[in-house]
Amino acid sequence: VKTIGVLTSGGDAPGMNAAIRAVVRTGIYYGFKMLGVRKGYNGLIAGDISEMTARNVSDIIHRGGTILQTARCKAFSTEEGMQKAMSISRAFGMDALVVIGGDGSYRGARDFSKFGMKVMGLPGTIDNDIASSDYTIGYDTAMNTVQDALDKIRDTAYSHERCSVLEVMGRKAGHIALNVGIAGGAEVILLPEKEFDFDKDIIRKIIQGRNSGKKNYIIILAEGISEKIGGALELAKKIEDLTGIETRGTVLGYIQRGGSPTIQDRVMASAMGVKAVELLKDGVFNRIISVKDSKIIDIDIDEALSMKKDIDQDLLRMSNILSI
Ligand code: ADP
Questions:
Q1: Average pLDDT in the 82-89 region?
Q2: Is the pTM of this model over 0.90?
Q3: Which of 192, 195, 187 is nearest to 239 (CA)?
Q4: How far apart are CA 111 and CA 284, in angstroms?
Q5: Rounded mean pLDDT of 310-320?
Q6: For the CA atoms of the chain, what is the radius of gyration?
Q7: Among 231, 19, 99, 227, which Cα is nearest to 108's?
Q8: What's the gap in Å between 233 CA and the centre of ligand 1?
Q9: What CA–CA distance (Å, rounded) separates 101 from 52?
Q10: Where does ATP bind (predicted)?
């Protein structure tokens, strides 16, 4: 390997810039030529590629989003698109590619490796929904953003003795909702991974809380369950109709994807970026960088994609004890 490309793909996440910086600087440190690919796999197909220097990644470690920008690319899922991307990569002399993104981006990278590209995946998603890794870049920042919002909502909910329903990101995974639900003292935590009964798990809990003297109620839900029971606004109306308690819904939305990354996201992104390039230097490729038991490891890309991740059942159990 002489020339390494780097791109960000799928949903953006705070800390992606720290990862780009680490990949570029480590590459330059070891004498590689480094290429930045813009807008995910689209940039590979369009040739939106340019050389990166150590100075190109100055002053970005503290910034959210991704300086390379990101996108979803339909064309890359086709054989024709992959072939084109491979031709363009060859034209730029790129012989390895670091992909910072989620599971979908890994699938793209795995397929691309079949065309001869040496790939390396870094976990970048706020949802922490990558099975091979305990931790993903952006997760900590997103949780802190949600925590801040929940604390503010709690202040006003208490003042008015209201019930508040907060909808957070997580289409398939409720890691953010579960952790912030515990950290913010939510009465009810609704996750895609957990079955629940509207009357028993929500209405009864609120009424029991009122009977025991609670002054406010927080319900946090991951967006994935809104298909089952409606989003925060619909749920708020249903709760108000049944309990008579004034209830307000808030959908937090894209605020969760932005912001300056936390120390944890910056350090993890930096360390994983260094590891990705050091492996390429040692002739290791088609791996996914992951965190297991607080250690940074690498896993075969096919193996990583076949893994499954569950919500922390013990934490879920404890959240029920703490919310009485
Ligand atoms: P994430 O990486 O955050 O999971 P997506 O699932 O949107 O985000 O995937 C990002 C991009 O990866 C897609 O737009 C597409 O270009 C590529 N991709 C996703 N799934 C596949 C697949 N099965 N085969 C090839 N490429 C894929």
A1: 98
A2: yes
A3: 187
A4: 17
A5: 94
A6: 22
A7: 99
A8: 30
A9: 19
A10: 11, 72-73, 102-105
Structure tokens given for 51: 């050389």
φ/ψ of residue 265, rounded to 5 = -65, -40
Active site members:
127
Angstrom distances, CA of residue 106 to CA of 63, 150, 238, 253, 260: 24, 32, 40, 25, 25
pLDDT at residue 227 in the model: 84
Annotated binding residues, written as ranges, equal: 11, 21-25, 72-73, 102-105, 125-127, 154, 162, 169-171, 185-187, 214-216, 223, 248, 254-257
Cβ count within 10 A of residue 110? 19
pLDDT tens-digit series, residues 197-248: 999 999 999 999 999 999 899 999 999 998 888 999 999 999 999 999 999 9
> Which of 72, 79, 58 has its CA nearest to residue 102?
72
Place of tokens 């607080």: 294
Element (H, E) at 228: helix 226-229
- Its ipTM equals 0.95
